[in-house]
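Appendix B. Chain record.
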Amino acid sequence: MNIKKSFFILVIFFLPLFLLATNVPKTQYTIGVQNFKHYLPYSQYQNKKYVGFNRELLDMFAKKMGYEFIYKAYPIKRLYKTFLNKGLDFKYPDNKYWNAKLKRLSPITYSNKVIEYIDGVMVKPKNREKGIKYLKNLSIVAGFTPFSYTRYIKNGRVKFHEEFNYKNMIIKVLAERVDGVYSNIAVTKYYLTNVAKKNEQLVFNRNLPHIRSFRHLSTIRYPKVIQEFNIFLQSNKGEIENLKRKYKIFNYLPDE
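Structure tokens predicted for this chain:
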């Protein structure tokens, strides 16, 4: 038997096995998440453990699909860089408006709406009705982009003070060293109630610029899994609502 004929036989034998192997669906995925120490009710990352609403929701989806999710926590800037360099399979949470310029050349697929959020300013109760003229200094989570305040940043009208934890943010506003805290409203309320346990609460100032939008699951590499996730969101509304109630997420959104 000549060399060419032997090679042909080997190709015929191994090609089906190769095609079968490449078509086997991946069952283990990496999900990039924020490494915030205090971000409940959504998430908390401490001692290399990721917990909270986000984790339980994604684990619920993984269990139903027979997938295994490995959560990798990063600071915000590094999280985006790793995700956009395809070092992660998915990112959660995400939104097409977050770091839009950085992501503009990446073919990102976003899921349907997962959960609503409000990013805005919380102030001492006596300042809840005041407008933008009152605002001069804000505490903000390091890495956050306050889209509603872009023009105020550029013209120097409002100064931002980045913090890596909520404790410092809360202390500054209660001591009136800054005028307010710009953050996710649900997270700040949760922190005040369950962690800081402050008698003097902060309130959401609706008169100041804020954003009301939704969180999504995103990917560059696996859009088909996003389609499956969308079906999961639609087919398991009852379980998801129960999960929201477990973490009292409804209670942390501002009253209409």
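Further analysis of this model is presented in Appendix C.
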